[in-house]
Amino acid sequence: MFHQANIIPAGDVGDGSQSLLEYWYERVLEVFSSYITFPVKSIKFDDLCTEFTLHEALDDSSPYVTMTLDETGAVTGLSYVSGSGAGHVPLTVPTASAAGVSSEARHIDLKTDLRFLHAAY
Predict the structure, then answer these.
(1) pTM higher than 0.90, yes or no?
(2) Other CB atoms closer than 10 Å to residue 9's CB: what's the count?
(3) What span, in angstroms and rounded, lies between the C-alpha atoms of 70 and 48?
(4) Residue 108 CB neighbours (<10 A)
(5) Helix (H, G, I), strand (E, B), or coil: what is residue 78?
(6) What is the dihedral of CA 85, 101, 93, 44, to 10 degrees?
(7) What's the alpha-carbon Rg for the chain, to the nearest Å?
(8) How would DSSP label each residue in 56-68?
C-alpha cells in the first residue's frame, strides 16, 4: 500500500531505515527536549478508547480548580472540585513538592516551590 508516511527522500536523511514520519518525529522531539524536560507520554492505539472514556467522564463531571492565596497574593494551595466525582485529573507538581502529595488528595497545600502547577487531563 502506498502511504505518504512510508516515503523517505533519497539522500542523507536519517540512516535510511526510518520512514519520513519517524524521522520527522525524532527531529521534533529533539527540538522539544532542548526546551523542557517533561517526559513524552505515548498512548498505544489499543488504549485510546479507554483514554477517551476517561476524558469524557472528566468533562461530564464539570471539574474546576480554585486557588488559595495568602495576603501577598502568592498561591499557597489548590482545591479540585468535581460535581459528580467521576472525573480523574492527573496533576503535575514540581518534583520538590510531589513527595508530599497524596495520590488520593483532593486539596493540595503547596507553600514552597510553586513555580509550576499544571492540572491537565
Answers:
(1) no
(2) 9
(3) 41
(4) 21
(5) strand
(6) -60
(7) 20
(8) HHHHHT--EEEEE
Query: What does the chain come to in residues?
Result: 121
At position 77, the amino acid (one-letter code) is G
Delimit the domains of the chain by residue range. Answer: 4-35, 63-119
| Angstrom distance (rounded) from CA 121 to CA 116 | 16
What are the pLDDT tens digits along the chain (121 aa)?
556 655 655 555 556 666 777 778 888 888 888 888 877 777 787 788 888 888 887 777 777 777 888 888 877 877 777 766 655 666 665 555 555 555 554 444 444 333 334 443 3
Contact 118, 77 (CB under 8 A): no
Identify the H or E element spanning 69: strand 64-69
Query: Which residues on adjacent β-strands are paired with residue 91?
Result: 119
